[in-house]
Inverse folding.
């Protein structure tokens, strides 16, 4: 494109690169080091190199496997439904109607709401005594007795998943809407002339045209949702009986309990799992560039 | 174009739109309603519009020990400085990625894009001791550095799209007219990209304004930001929901206003960006 040999690009990238190296690279190296030590701040005199002991402990830890399974469910249901509702919302917002600008702006607000506030807002709505959700469900005669949603193991997990779905719909809608607006209108006009039905247009034109957007947004979202701590932590702290403890919440809880070696080891295992998502993302991004 | 019947339009547009909007907006309505109800009404039979409206929770936020105003000020400083730092760094970096081909470019881009992949909790612990050793702990700079890193990937990605969309011929024309690259960048590219920079800046500001996990570790009573102040409203004796929801409403108003102005640009930016169909 422009001059091959020049020092300029390096100078331009340098500030961002230095910040990233200091704030991400050095801590990651630190954390890897910690994961090989018995690094427990409650017993600071016993800190020593222990090899793979923390990793082996994780593989033997029933809660680790449970948390990993919860993470998978959390991501599959959370991101899955975010996508479905975000897609529907984007299709609706792509139509012309009066007040569309306002509706679009307003429907994106959950995206700009702090995770901690989201957790607390929903916790209040789920409340077993004064919660509005119980009141609505009772008025609709769906239930006849108040349910303490976040205090029961079998309702707590679906409850936090609904919350993360609510949080993620706007981002999906925003990205998919951007993709939809890039589809040339002539495609639909041609399809109309050939007498295509709405469903045919959806599956033959719309979805193929934005499949890259869906792919990229999905991968980004999976990484964010898998790493998210604040929503669950402010609703249930991973309880009751570990029913809502995803891996990142487990790591956070262990870190708060000052067992840094063990929590670092688990965090690294989580990062390795997320590599399965990140690698296709990077390959795809560069593949696009080569075209 | 043929006109759809009203019924069809209602079923395919208005009805689903109303259902989704109700789902999205009801929690905010509920938060607001909670904040203006007196306690007696809050902890009793559920009412959908307060029988008695009172604003006491809002005055309490600013007059009692909570010191919400100080937290707002801290949040504003952190978010504003982060926006300047992160926007500058990401503009320079994405300009380089978009306009130059250089050795190590791909590796660096991969590093940028993947840096959100690490569980934040993994960085939290080592960063805490690094910040303490540097003497940055409990100063706004600790948060500025952390938030700059978290916002860089998405900002670089957004801006990269804006740059790639900008025809090269613009700069070439300027170079032919005797501008050097630096002048072309400041005189031509920046003014055109102005609105896109604003949109990216709003994203950075929002993210920094809202972050909790790092804020709770890296601040003390004097430097704490809004999300931390919100959490501190949850006391030993349970949650004062009236006060908490009032704090929540105050928290989201500034970012909502900014977002309303920037969201159109943001959508355009994403359209122009790497997400091309």
């Amino acid at each position: 494109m422009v001059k091959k040999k020049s020092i300029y690009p390096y100078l331009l990238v340098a500030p961002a690169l230095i910040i990233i190296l200091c704030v991400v690279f050095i801590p990651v190296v630190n954390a890897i080091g910690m994961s090989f030590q018995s690094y427990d701040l409650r017993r600071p005199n016993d800190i020593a190199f222990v090899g793979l002991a923390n990793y082996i402990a994780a593989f033997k830890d029933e809660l680790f496997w449970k948390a990993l399974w919860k993470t998978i469910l959390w991501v599959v249901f959370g991101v899955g439904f975010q996508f479905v509702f975000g897609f529907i919302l984007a299709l609706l917002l792509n139509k012309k109607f009066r007040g569309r600008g306002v509706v679009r702006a307003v429907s994106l607000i959950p995206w700009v709401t702090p995770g901690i506030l989201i957790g607390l807002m929903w916790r209040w709505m789920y409340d077993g005594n004064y919660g509005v959700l119980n009141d609505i469900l009772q008025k609709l005669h769906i239930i006849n007795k108040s349910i303490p949603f976040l205090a029961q193991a079998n309702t707590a997990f679906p409850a936090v998943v609904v919350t993360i779905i609510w949080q993620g719909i706007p981002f999906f809608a925003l990205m998919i809407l951007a993709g939809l607006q890039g589809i040339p209108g002539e495609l639909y006009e041609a399809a109309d002339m050939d007498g295509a039905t709405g469903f045919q247009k959806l599956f033959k034109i719309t979805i193929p045209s934005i499949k890259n957007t869906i792919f990229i947004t999905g991968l980004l979202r999976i990484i964010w949702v898998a790493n998210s701590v604040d929503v669950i932590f402010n609703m249930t702290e991973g309880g009751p009986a570990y029913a809502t403890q995803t891996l990142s919440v487990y790591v956070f809880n262990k870190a708060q309990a000052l067992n840094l070696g063990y929590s670092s080891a688990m965090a690294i295992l989580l990062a390795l799992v997320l590599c399965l998502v990140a690698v296709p993302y990077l390959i795809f991004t560069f593949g696009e560039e080569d075209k | 174009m043929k006109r759809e019947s009203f019924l069809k339009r209602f079923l395919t547009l208005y009805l689903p739109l109303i259902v989704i909007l109700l789902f999205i907006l009801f929690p905010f309505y509920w938060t607001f309603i909670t904040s203006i109800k007196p306690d007696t009404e809050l902890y009793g039979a559920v009412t959908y519009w307060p029988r008695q409206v009172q604003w006491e929770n809002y005055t309490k936020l600013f007059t009692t020990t909570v010191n919400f105003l100080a937290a707002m000020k801290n949040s504003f400083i952190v978010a504003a400085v982060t926006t300047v730092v992160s926007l500058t760094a990401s503009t320079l970096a994405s300009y380089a990625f978009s306009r130059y081909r250089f050795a190590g470019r791909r590796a660096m881009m991969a590093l940028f894009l993947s840096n959100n992949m690490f569980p934040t909790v993994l960085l939290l612990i080592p960063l805490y001791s690094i910040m303490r050793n540097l003497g940055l702990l409990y100063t706004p700079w600790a948060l500025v550095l952390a938030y700059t890193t978290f916002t860089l990937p998405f900002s670089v990605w957004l801006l990269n799209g804006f740059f790639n969309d900008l025809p090269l011929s613009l700069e070439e024309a300027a170079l032919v007219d005797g501008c050097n690259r630096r002048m072309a960048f400041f005189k031509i590219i920046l003014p055109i990209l102005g609105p896109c920079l604003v949109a990216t800046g709003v994203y950075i500001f929002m993210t920094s304004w809202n972050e909790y996990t790092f804020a709770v570790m890296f601040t003390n009573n004097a430097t704490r930001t809004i999300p931390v102040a919100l959490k501190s409203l949850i006391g030993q004796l349970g949650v004062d929901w009236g006060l908490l929801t009032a704090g929540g409403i105050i928290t989201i108003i500034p970012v909502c206003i900014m977002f309303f102005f920037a969201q159109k640009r943001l959508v355009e930016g994403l359209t122009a960006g790497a997400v091309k169909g």
Remarks:
- Chain B is about 75% helix and 0% strand.
